[in-house]
UniProtKB/TrEMBL annotation:
Descriptive protein name: Redoxin domain-containing protein
Pfam family, one: AhpC-TSA
CDD domains attached to this UniProt entry: TlpA_like_family (cd02966)
Gene3D superfamilies reported in the protein's UniProt record: Glutaredoxin (3.40.30.10)
Lineage start: Bacteria, Bacillati, Actinomycetota, Actinomycetes, Streptosporangiales
Chain ranges of the Thioredoxin domain: 93-227
Residue ranges that the Swiss-Prot or TrEMBL entry lists as coiled coil: none
UniProt source species: Actinomadura rugatobispora
Length: 334
């Protein structure tokens, strides 16, 4: 028996390793929510034809990693810990035409269809936590004109984010992405990151480094007033934002390495919560090797290994990225 780790849940998976190192699951049991039918594997209305599914089927069982690829997932297997983690794969690639939907804390992004949405990713391990009251002010000022700010904390514990949410006295949807679901869908590699979504659910400004105050401008070089003015133009002056072609040009679609890094990170979080610190560290190192630029993983998960995300480990990470010419913040033209 292995433990399967997906976004928001971990469960037992009836599977074994064969002599080639493949993880084989029982063919008569559901796998990733799909069930074997006479004509193929099905989940709700969707079906994977038997001819395609055959690529993952062996006499000894279903090759879990191969099957995951067929249904748009990436699998990372740890034989020693008897665990496998899954992350979204190419089938869920981010696109300009429709913003990926998600539900956190009982709020679905699609519930806001018909309104403009400023999707604001932040975290308690980032100085951008001090911007939350200012984002609330922007929400309050522009809510009557059709804007909803939705803030999403990338904290792995809701308890870390809640004090900052309560202090900001928010009235906008303030969500906590403890399992990295929304961050994965929107390929958020650092915070603060803001995405604009129009009334029809289309992305009109993709992942943009924006702040709502100038508290750390000397460090990040970001102009909060410029982003505020752009937001007001979009809401009040009906500025359409970027065209679909421009969105596609700037959209940061996750690479295969980034997707695999997220699976390693998901497994690391589960292992850390299970008290398996050494194994968690190993998967964090794998994630860092695959996506060294992903600050949301590397800084956001420092606490798992006892490192201070505001201390020496973070500044060492900054120095490493700067020496490598990797931008820490990635603002779009305003």
């Amino acid at each position: 028996m292995f433990t399967a780790v997906e976004a928001g849940r971990a469960y037992g998976l009836d599977a074994r390793l064969d002599d080639r190192g493949r993880l084989l699951a029982a063919p008569d049991r559901p796998l990733l929510g799909w069930e074997r039918k006479p004509h193929g594997w099905c989940r709700e209305e969707a079906c994977l034809p038997a001819a395609r599914a055959a690529a993952a089927e062996t006499p000894g069982g279903v090759d879990v990693a191969a099957f995951a690829g067929l249904v748009g997932k990436v699998a990372v297997i740890d034989p020693d810990e008897r665990a496998v983690a899954f992350a979204e794969g190419a089938a869920q690639a981010l696109g300009a035409d429709e913003a990926p939907d998600f539900t956190l804390d009982g709020v679905a992004l699609s519930d806001l269809r018909g309104r403009k949405v400023a999707l604001v990713f932040w975290a308690s391990w980032c100085g951008c936590r001090y911007d939350l009251p200012a984002w609330q002010e922007r929400h309050a000022a522009l809510e009557g004109d059709g804007l909803t700010v939705v803030s999403v904390a990338l904290d792995r514990s809701a308890a870390d984010a809640r004090p900052w949410i309560e202090e900001a006295k928010v009235t906008h949807p303030a969500l906590v992405d403890a399992e990295g679901v929304a961050a994965e869908l929107y390929n958020v590699i650092n915070v603060p990151t803001v995405v604009w979504i129009d009334e029809e659910g289309r992305i009109v400004r993709p992942q943009d480094s924006q702040t709502a105050t100038d508290l750390f401008r000397s460090m990040n070089g970001l102009d909060s007033e410029a982003s505020h003015a752009a937001l007001r133009r979009w809401v009040l002056d009906r500025d359409p934002g970027l065209t679909a072609a421009e969105v596609r040009e700037h959209l940061r679609v996750p690479t295969a390495e980034e997707r695999r890094a997220r699976a390693h990170a998901r497994l690391a979080v589960w292992l850390a919560r299970e008290g398996r610190a050494a194994a968690a560290r190993r998967h964090l190192d794998e994630a860092a090797a695959l996506a060294p630029h992903d600050v949301a993983i590397r800084r956001g998960l420092m606490a798992l290994t006892g490192e201070d995300p505001f201390g020496d480990a973070y500044f060492a990470l900054r120095d490493e990225l700067e020496r490598s010419g990797v931008p820490i913040y990635r603002p779009l033209p305003l």
